[in-house]
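Q: Hi! First time doing this. I have a protein sequence and I read that you can turn it into a structure. Is that right? Here it is:
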Amino acid sequence: MSPVPEQLRIAIFTETFLPKIDGIVSILCLLLQRLQEQGHKVILFGPPGGPPEYAGAEVIGVGGPRVPFYPELRINVPRRFVWRRVKEFAPDLIHVVNPVVLGPFGLSYARLLRVPTVASFHTDLAGYVKFYGAGFMAPAIWSYLRSLHNQADVNLCPSTTIRGELQRQGFRRVRWWKRGIDTDLFTPGERIADVRNRLTGGNPDDFLVINVGRQAPEKRLDLLRDAIFPESNVRLALIGDGPGHQVLQKQFAGTPTVMTGYMRGQELVDAYRAADAFIFPSTTETFGLVALEAMACRLPVIAARTGGVLDTVIDGYNGLYYNPDQPQEIRPLVQRLRDNPALRNELAENALNHARSRSWRATMDQLVDYYHSAIRVFRLSHNHELHGAPI
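A: Yes, that's right. Below is the predicted 3D structure, encoded as structure tokens:
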């Protein structure tokens, strides 16, 4: 059996990519950067409208109609040229990211080419549908995703909570792919007065709580209005956009809330640095990358005690939890941080130390190790098949 090549040829099929901004895209961008640094060759198939190249990887748009209730997403069905391009590239491995529509084609191409597959689970679709009035679909969604993921040689998930849920749902060969961030970019630093002034609506002496991310019903941002306000000397900034943006604008009208739209790069770092605390009400997060970004900028996190964030926030050490079924617990936690600067400072310092230990390069190296494991598993299983031995 020939050795696993050190420099791999990797084809990635993803349901989402630039110009969309979310946690999955952030992880993919970091992954492509690390693969380039290590000399791997990558081709990425994703939705149309993205750049033709990113970090040395060729990016090929695969068209399709938009999802009616979620126009940021597309139903991307590849045409014949995609298969031709995959064959020409001759990958050592195919990685399907969040397989739903495009991902299954990646799995079928891998079978035709007889190459191993890695599938990574990123989004709790079964949890999402209840926020769109379709909770009855959850069992069917789990069944569909299980049938896809169980075709892969290795399945990856972003947190221990999700690993347990996937195993309960019958997913096989599940491994924990840890998460990290760019700790060279997300760092503490001086507050910029203009940024603080903007995010507090011209009240820089008030206590500023922020949230960053895609704005959609499943993020539960709407509950923050009554959970926080009315509260004296407290301001809220919602940084992001998405299908729920306009509804949230109406819901938060008349409250001390600023909505900025998306921010990226240094602008986002400056926003984190301008805040006093980060609020994270979502209960459907498979990890919650933005919480780790906030911590790297020296912010304590107030979060619902559920989901992927349980691997990040330690209650009373680097943040505070509330019962996700009792959002009224949020206001006392905000008051506690506002009225106790020493506690806020202690939590912020511990948050920073925790985030600094989560290097994105180390987590991407872990993924490459999983790539090599998938290749070995695939070769071993096919060697057994060729010789008629039980697997």
